[in-house]
Amino acid sequence: MSATERHGLMYWQSRSWQDWLYALALLFGVGYAQQRYSAYMDSYEQIILLFAAPTGIALGWSWGALQRLFVGSAVLALFSISLYTQELARADRVFLLKYLISSQSAILWMCALYFAATLVYWAGLLMRSAFALATATGLTWAATVFGLVGLLVRWYESYLIGADVGHIPISNLYEVFVLFALITALLYLYIEARYATRLMGAFVLLVISAAIGFLLWYTFSREAHAIQPLVPALQSWWMKIHVPANFIGYGAFALAAMVASAHLLASRGVLATRLPSLEVLDDVMYKSIAIGFAFFTVATILGALWAADAWGSYWQWDPKETWALIVWLNYAAWLHIRLTKGLRGALLAWWALIGLLVTTFAFIGVNMFLSGLHSYGSL
Amino acid sequence: MRFAISLLTLVAIASVIGTVLRQNEPLANYLNQFGPFWFRVFEAAGLYAVYNAPWFIAIMAFLVLSTSVCIWRNTPGMLRQMATYREGIRESSMRAMAHQTEFACTLPTDEALHRATQYLQAQGFRLRAGATGVLAAKSGSFSRLGYLAAHSAIVAICVGGLLDSNVPLQLKLALGEARPASSDTLLSQMPASARLSADNASFRGNTLIPEGGASSVAVINAGDGVLVQELPFTLTLNRFHIEHYSTGQPKLFASDVLVTDRETKQSFSARIEVNKPLQYRGVTVYQASFDDGGTLLNLRGHHMLAPRAQPLQLNGRIGESAELRYDGATYRIEWVGFRPINVENLATVGEGGANDTDREARGLFGRVRDQMGSGREGMTPRELRNVGPSFSYKLRDAAGQAREYNNYQLPVQIDGRPVFLTGVRDTPSDRFRYVRIPADEALGIDEFLRLRAGLLDPSLRAAIAQRFAANAVRGGSVSPALQARLAESAERALTTFSARGYQSVAEFLEQAVPEPERDGAAQIYLRVLQGATWEAWQLRREKDRLPVLDFTPARVQFVQDSLNAVSDLHFYGVPIWFSLDTFDEVKASVFQMTRSPGRNLVYLGCVLLVLGVFAMLYVRERRIWLLVRDGIAVLAMQTNRRTLDANETFARHQHALMALLSTTSSSKGAVHERH
Ligand code: HEM
Fold it and tell me: CA-CA distance, B606 to B612, in Å (whole number)?
């Protein structure tokens, strides 16, 4: 037996029964969806569905908490769907739907819980209370569950509105803001577990709270949460992979910037005794920019491939495309400085923080101030 | 390296300019925006088409060059690095490394190295033994291939993108291989110098095909003129489909086409949709947009100011124009557009700020509660309705002044009453101002025309005034003098209003009535006008041998709406209003056609880029050396990335190896212990 084979065998042998159960449930879910809905999916979408199973299993196996998140959210979402009994109006009549697990309610709960988690993380950080920090982690998980449930139920609701209206909820600015909050939170929770410290939560949750603030403003003053049908340019399987990849990128960059700000404060002695060491902050910053950069590269390429199908050209300097390039170049330069010059510390932290401004502009500024072909959301 | 980063910065800045400044607009727009001086400066800098500006292309070329040089310089060294194990390393080099340690090793050298070999192999290392008790191990060396892949990818993408940009076209123009013709030239009369042959390797053009029509060329914009690109096939549009959701958003654009190869004469059918282009003979055909392909309208023209003119029967085809003689003047009528479907939100029409106050009243918790539930819709009520076809046309007078009109075919419900909407604007940048002509009980225009004819006919005025006065005092005993004064004021109201609508009424009141009493007077005046108009309408009906109508609130409202419309029509310009009887819609599809020889190179570059980036960032190169001599072991590790987990990894290997080498007992189990 060669070394790699032995390595592989160990991977399979070290799986617990929960791991197998989880994998089985996922395979069953995908099989069920394939069997029941394959008539409504084109071959690309079926391939995406097929890949969802091993991806989900690999993710869940490498980080057990994800299994609980996925299973918990799926159970809640299915429960919510069963309460609807295929009638949208029941969202206003059934108590549990109206106040807890219809899509809007779940998303509002998500918002409230992320705000709460932010406050508790800060309390824990300032008062050096491990209990508060553990509570904050719990709140963040709860918020994430609610957000995921909200999106899943929203997906279902869109089909209740009309078979031709139904679509995966990652198609307008409102939906991707929820996605952004979820992904940033998950990336953070992973780092929290990996580095076994909860001390960065106060900073990371700030950017999530800012996103939530925007989301609420967008909901209450613009009524942006209404489910809208997809215009022809968005009716593409590319959307289903381009958008999530993009938001892993945005989420990771946002996380890096928040850790960078913690780094900058700590290196000036502010909160220095409360925060993790500069070395850890620096490492997290690099790791999350590396993750962000890799996914952003993939997302931009996927966007180009999609554009080739939708607009007739893989690249035509549309403002959104161009700003994606600017963001990409910015972090490419960041990585070059770090990897080739071995530079680290304050300069890179400042750069990561400014990178967030560039990213934010690419994310919403373009929609606000520039016009172009991207039709998924305007303010 | 520093140079490359400066170039990247320049690209980024140029890109920012390109997104902030709208690109490729007509030059006149920029002149307006910046004034003559800055206009010229920015033009010289090429800012109106940044991505085609020579300096931008030059930067890209430099980037490609410097990256290529970097690859060229680094590749041999990297390949060498990948191949070597450096098993001949000296102890002093090992001790100089960031991760290095020493511990006691009581085993014989052979046994120690054997155990270490087994351990490191199980950890995924490849090994080579050196001469003097040195073991060299490495893993993840191909992370260096990542560097090669990612940087080659940049070169591939830039070169491929250059092939597909409009640089080849610019070269052709510069070399005089093609000369653009004026864009007014008919396609059939394009000179050979403006035609590009079907085997042109790289192009991007557009073509508009009406239903039933065909095209075997694409049109390429080049500066102020156009070029014609021959295609290797003929595209015939059988049908263009457009579907809408109930909300009015477009749901589907699709073209059913017949593709006929111009060489083999063979045909096949295909469907082209947004996101589903057609590929044939190296050309990709996209659904770019759609247009009207020459819809035929059958119209009636109604004279809106002079009473009782016979309606004018007229046909018009969208995209064409004709001479129109009317009312003693000659116009040019240009049929601009036709839309079969218009979805409007009727809930917000005529609704004031009631909703806002409503919101305030609900309070914060009320509003949050309102948001809870399904994501179906917002709180603002929406009532989307298809209000039917509309068409637009321009009327150009003898002086060349044009006004544009936009009319709806069917009456639209506004404030609960059906009205015909007709909009007018002086320039395309204005919004249409709409006149609302009330529809009658049969949802037609006849009663409005009748009322207006009676209202505006001077020969009927005396009779109308008499009737009005008689009816107004019916039942009461009023002196003949008062009755005469009533008739007189009715007649004056009609005459004044007929001149220029409410405008002349306002002017009259301003002159005749002192300020403090004006409001009251105006109200009486309008009441009189309304009453007289009612009589005018009824008198006109009698003359048309129709029964006189009973007085109802709805009809009173109709009279009021008609008065408003008649008044508004004084600002309508040309006194003719067209209503649409029937139409025969012809749609046209706009296709974009490209041949992109660089595309595969770009896609290859994309694959390389992804592989390269992941390899560089996620494959960790680890080299470990173990030297065993004289009862001690020296362990050193080198990594390509200085990250925290390198410390952990080193500590892990150190502990494992210490456990393995410092004891005589067989410790196979310990190999996996800390995994
Ligand atoms: C925007 C496109 C890029 C350009 C123009 C570019 C250009 C360069 C140049 C000129 C060098 C210096 C080589 C030398 O002087 O020896 C370099 C090195 C390097 N680049 Fe890039 N690069 C690009 C993208 C990337 C990307 C996406 C990555 C991935 C993170 C990357 C990672 C590296 C690394 C790790 C090195 C150092 C290689 C070494 O010496 O070990 N580059 N690059």
Answer: 10
